[in-house]
Design a protein that fits this description.
This protein is an alpha+beta fold. Helix content is 74%, strand content 6%. It is built from 19 helices and 8 strands. It has helices at residues 3-21, 23-77, 79-83, 86-109, 114-128, 131-142, 146-177, 180-199, 216-229, 231-261, 268-289, 296-316, 320-348, 354-414, 418-425, 435-444, 495-498, 520-528, 531-550, and strands spanning 446-450, 455-457, 465-471, 474-477, 484-486, 491-492, 506-509, 513-519. A hairpin with a 6-residue loop joins strand 4 and strand 5. The longest helix is centred in the last third of the chain and has 61 residues, at 354-414. It is elongated, with a radius of gyration of 27 Å. It starts with a helix and ends in a 5-residue tail after the last helix. The relative contact order is 0.10.
């Protein structure tokens, strides 16, 4: 391992430890353990209950009840995550799901009609659509650095991978020793566990975009408009949907592969899915090693290829051991795709519509899984199981290769200037902001060289720029007041941007140096969009205006 790779790994491990040292993030991750494990255990128990009541047709009906309403409702339920404190939205979702699970347990115990249980299952699916977008949108405000945000997504993906086989195993074990109603009751407890943990997370309401209208249609469709309006988001969401389409097909192809091709018996589908889950856990280690690389879009593309190539190879070389190994490799790719896609979307989307963007994405992904499941039997009928695997993998691989130049461009566009980021994170005005917001501001900073004696701003002029001193020194002068010297890491120009007043002082370069400037719109949107940042700005402005009254120059 090269020295650079070792340093990146150390930085990644430090970021991962920081996730669990961060009390707020720790509570979110532990809450996810309860929520996701409960969902999987409940899904197994519900399928067994439906099969006992109506056979395979009832299992299909339950699947329709669970997935179709959530796909339709997700983009609109996500509005709650952009209008209310996101932590409270998650708690409300957990409590409603817990109550519904208790209702289902009572219905099973009292031998109520199966329709009651199915209706409660549909209600749980609808309520759940508010939980995931709110959780994904909340993480950026809790992470303290970009690396910590990526590490938090790695932790979430790892939890999802472990729960994908631990949850069904727990549900199956409980069904052996108890009953379907008991599993529903335990699931209710898991949702309560999640609610209690999330309740301890501080969560302020997202600040609304002052330019946004208040019409209901505009509120509901904002997520769609945001994705359609940004080429980067269109690409990421489209590729994520393509990978999920392949995942939906694989859900069916794994069953055909296990029972008809490899002849593994009834335990075969579970064995093959377990290989994917184990690969997902290994993928967390790989993703963690890539945290400090700052090439998330390329990692996303690599994850797509790690999905595509194993599917093609399984179709070409269908034997039990190679298939298990290749499915584990596919699981690694699955984690890379999840971590990179979520982090990129969190960093590329404005906070005021972040939950709604994730709501739209959740709807598209559920729809893509369903479409993949529908297409898979047709592919098997046309090409056989091997040919269906090759066709699905080749489709995803071609899409990934054709998109690679655009993914590389995203990496170049979102590369964070380290010096500028370090300067901004030390300023009290920006300290409360989410890392993604500070990254955005760092990329918007424009360097300006100044020479000794040059007038930078003049008292009485309108203010259009915020300034940070990167090198050299400047002198702040107000008529009749002693001057003040500002050096590297200090700033000026905020008063005329945040108050309806002209420049309150003149600033002159004392020596040659470099300033970093931020235009009015970017500065005002960032500072006024976060209550703590605005409070810090008000405190600074109050102190500086006070210093003018008492005889010190300031801006």
């Amino acid at each position: 391992m090269t020295r650079g790779a070792r340093n990146r790994l150390r930085e990644s491990l430090r970021a991962f430890r920081a996730v669990f040292a961060n009390r707020q993030l720790r509570r979110i991750e532990l809450a996810l353990v309860g929520s996701v494990t409960g969902e999987w255990a409940y899904a197994i128990a519900l399928a067994v209950y439906a099969f006992g009541r109506g056979g395979a047709a009832a299992v299909g009906l339950v699947g329709l009840i669970r997935f179709l309403p959530s796909a339709l409702v997700a983009p609109f339920a996500a509005v709650l995550g952009d209008r209310l404190p996101r932590g409270r939205v998650m708690v409300a979702s957990d409590l409603l799901r817990a109550a519904a699970m208790i209702g289902a347990a009572v219905a099973v115990a009292s031998e109520a009609p199966a329709g009651v249980v199915y209706a409660l299952a549909g209600f749980v699916s609808i309520v759940s659509t508010a939980f995931r977008p709110a959780q994904a949108a909340l993480l950026p405000s809790l992470a303290r650095t970009p690396e910590e945000l990526t590490a938090a997504n790695v932790a979430s993906s790892t939890i999802e991978s472990i729960a994908s086989f631990a949850g069904p195993a727990l549900g199956g074990l409980l069904l052996v020793v108890t009953s379907t109603g008991a599993v529903f009751a335990v699931t209710s407890g898991a949702f309560l566990w999640s609610a209690i943990l999330v309740f301890g997370v501080s969560s302020a309401p997202p600040v609304r975009d002052p330019e946004a209208g208040s019409e209901i249609a505009g509120e509901l469709l904002a997520g769609f408009r945001t994705i359609l309006g940004q080429a980067r988001l269109r690409l990421l969401v489209g590729l994520y949907a393509a990978q999920t389409l392949a995942a939906g097909a694989l859900n069916v192809l794994v069953v055909v592969l296990a029972l008809e091709v490899l002849d593994l018996g009834t335990s075969g589908p579970g064995l093959l899915n377990a290989a994917v889950g184990i690969g997902g856990v290994l993928g967390a280690v790989v993703a963690l090693a890539l945290v400090g690389r700052q090439r998330l879009a390329s990692d996303f593309g690599a994850g797509l290829l790690l999905w595509a190539v194993p599917m093609v190879l399984i179709g070409v070389w269908t034997h039990e051991v190679p298939t298990l190994v290749l499915l584990a490799v596919l699981g690694i790719g699955n984690t890379l795709v999840d971590v990179a896609a979520l982090t990129l979307l969190q960093r590329a989307t404005p906070d005021e519509v972040l939950a709604r963007v994730f709501g739209v994405m959740e709807s598209l992904l559920v729809g893509a899984i369903g479409l993949g499941a529908i297409l898979a039997p047709a592919l098997v009928s046309a090409f056989g199981a091997d040919g269906a695997l090759i066709a699905t993998g080749a489709f995803l691989g071609v899409v990934a290769v054709l998109s690679w130049p655009r993914l590389a461009r995203i990496d170049r566009e979102i590369e964070v200037p380290e010096r500028e980021l370090a300067l901004l994170t030390r300023l009290p005005l920006f300290a409360p902001l989410a890392p993604a917001t500070v990254e955005h501001l760092a990329r918007k900073l424009a360097p300006v060289s100044v020479r000794a004696g040059e007038v930078i701003v003049r008292a009485g002029e309108p203010g259009e720029l915020f300034y940070v001193v990167a090198s050299g020194e400047v002198e702040v002068e107000a008529e009749g007041k002693p001057s003040q010297t500002l050096g590297p890491g200090e700033y000026f120009g905020e008063i005329a941007l945040l108050r309806p007043v002209p420049r309150t002082a003149t600033v002159v370069a004392r020596e040659d140096g470099e300033l970093l400037t931020l235009d009015r719109d970017e500065f005002v949107t960032a500072v006024t969009g976060h209550p703590e940042s605005l409070s810090a700005a008000d405190a600074v402005i109050g102190a500086r205006l006070g210093s003018l009254r008492t005889g010190r120059a300031s801006l």
